[in-house]
Write a structure and sequence with these properties.
By secondary structure, the protein is an alpha/beta fold. It has three domains: about 130 residues; about 170 residues, no CATH class; about 50 residues. About 80% of the residues lie in helices and about 5% in strands. The protein has a five-stranded mixed sheet, with helices on both faces. The chain starts with a helix and ends with a helix. InterPro entries: DNA_recombination_RmuC. Involved in DNA recombination. Pfam families: RmuC.
């Protein structure tokens, strides 16, 4: 009987408590609805005030911008007008200065033209007294100096300084105009730049009759052969020099005349191991000599190139070996990264399971009703 009364009492207390909670919940719901309504009205009022203030601010800002733009426009207009006035003034000054300089230039040009006219008159007067190149080279020394200058210019422009020497004295006390220092087996080649031209000029003199011209041609051949003999006797000294020498003809016309109409002279020179060259053919010979010198220099450097290639091969072998080691390290690092990734994924999954297990008991406690100590004793 007492247990029955206790149960009824507990049920009544529970009903009263639930009724109280229902009433409190209703009151709280009503208060929340009222608070939400007040908050909504306050928000609406604030929103309306903000829109009003924003509209007024925008209107004021627009007015101020209009005023500022108006003032700036006026200032800009005044500045532009002032600048245009300055530019117009400067343009006028520049035009005046340009016209003045143009007049000065025109006056200077006229003065210079007058000076040029005077110089032209002097040139015309000097032309009548000018000595022709043929008369200037009539002397053997002048002709030799002209050939030496032309020969030195050609050699200096093509060969390095170590490959030639001007005015070289041989062991027989003969002085060559130039010697070419070529590599073995050629050796040193002497070049002579003097050439007999007296009879060549007589051959083409318009005031000479046919008999004199034929005699001059015969004498020209004799002069050339004698010059070939002199070169062969003076400058071919094996083993000091090579077994040949070069006869430099400083005029292309003379060279063409010899090869076109005097082939017997060319054959005679070849028999004496004397090579007749003109400025054009000498340039080809010098270019060939330069190529030979460069080839010899390259051959001398072959062993250095071989050593460098050998060292480069060893360096490349070491590079290949180190590259293989690096590839192995990269492969191992990639494998380690994959294993670490697997371990990380497993740890993450375990953490997820642990978190799921830890979160379940609190959910059960929230769902279970709260029991008084008396209820626990009755349940026991």
């Amino acid at each position: 009987m007492p247990d029955y009364l206790l149960i009824i009492t507990a049920a009544a207390i529970l009903l009263v408590t639930m009724a109280y909670l229902v009433i409190r919940l209703g009151m709280l719901s009503t208060m929340v609805r009222e608070l939400l309504g007040q908050q909504a009205r306050l928000m609406e009022d604030k929103h309306r005030d903000m829109l009003k203030d924003l509209h007024e601010g925008l209107s004021n800002q627009g007015n101020r911008l209009s005023e500022v733009l108006g003032r700036n426009s006026d200032q800009l207009r005044g500045t532009v007008e002032a600048r245009l006035d300055q530019i117009s003034g400067r343009v006028a000054e520049r035009l005046d200065e340009g016209f003045r300089k143009t007049n000065e230039t025109f006056t200077s040009v006229m003065t210079r033209l007058a000076t040029i006219d005077e110089a032209q008159k002097k040139i015309d007067s000097l032309t009548t007294n000018m000595v022709s190149l043929q008369e200037l080279l009539g002397d053997k020394r002048s002709r030799g100096a002209f050939g030496e200058v032309q020969l030195e210019a050609l050699v200096r422009n093509i060969l390095p300084p170590s490959a030639y020497e001007m005015q070289h004295t041989l062991s027989n006390s003969s002085r060559a105009d130039c010697v070419l220092k070529l590599p073995p087996p050629t050796g040193m080649v002497a070049v002579d730049s003097k050439f007999p031209l007296e009879n060549f000029h007589r051959m083409f003199d318009r005031h000479t009759d046919d008999t004199s011209r034929a005699l001059a041609q015969k004498q020209f051949k004799a002069d050339v052969k004698k010059h070939v003999d002199d070169i062969a006797g003076k400058y071919i000294l094996p083993p000091e020099t090579c077994d040949g020498a070069v006869m430099f003809v400083p005029a292309e016309a003379v060279f063409a005349e010899i090869h076109a109409y005097h082939s017997d002279i060319v054959d005679y020179a070849m028999q004496k191991q004397v090579w007749i060259v003109s400025p054009t053919t000498l340039m080809a010979v010098l270019n060939t000599a330069r190529a030979v010198l460069k080839d010899i220099e390259t051959r001398e450097q072959v062993h250095i190139i071989k050593n460098e290639l050998s060292r480069l091969g060893k360096d490349f072998a070491r590079f290949d070996e180190r590259m293989k080691k690096l590839a192995d390290h990269i492969r191992q690092a990639n494998q380690d990264v994959e294993e670490v990734h697997v371990s990380s994924r497993k740890i993450s999954q375990r953490f997820a399971r642990i978190e799921a297990v830890d979160l379940e008991p609190p959910q059960l406690e929230m769902e279970m009703p709260v029991m008084e100590p008396a209820d626990e004793e009755n349940s026991r």
